[in-house]
Amino acid sequence: MTGVKNMNFEDITAQSRQAVTEILEKARLKAGDVFVIGCSSSEILGDQIGTATNLDSANAVYDGIMPVLKENGIFAAVQCCEHLNRALVMERAAMEKYGFEQVNAIPQPNHAGGAMATVSYQRFEDPVLVESICGKADAGIDIGGTMIGMHMHSVVVPMRISLRKIGEAPIICARHRPKYVGGQRAIYDENLM
């Protein structure tokens, strides 16, 4: 692990909080929307994805992101690693609201699930694992190249925010927008673009 000795986890929390705050402002999310989080704790430390799983960096990201989502009434969906087929950890209330189907697995940091999914499963009030959210995420953040796009609505728009990294991990932010229909004669609602 190259980065653990030099990593300031308070900075990771602050960066995570700043990133999610900017995304929520730009994406114009509302209470009840779904925000997907993909996170490589290895990449945050400067290591290759899947090689240096670290619960401290995952807890730091959790501490930055989750209070902001909770304050705004946004549901979190935390993506597991490929060993659990990118299943998602979420609160039971979100699963029930959207009619997602629960599956049976408990994320583990070094085996199947990853650090962020493990931390979320441990810290959520009533966590469940769902196999899919059927492309219902309204916005999200991909920390370290975890590929969250499969969980987003069909029209995904990349977003630039003031941060480019959390720790050493590059971030990609995205939101969805409604499809444009009607062709060149249509007039579009600027608030939905």
Automatic annotation (TrEMBL):
One matching Pfam family: DUF436
Highest taxon of source: Bacteria
Family statement drawn from the similarity comment of this UniProt entry: Belongs to the UPF0340 family.
Protein name: UPF0340 protein SAMN04487928_11418
Native source organism of the sequence: Butyrivibrio proteoclasticus
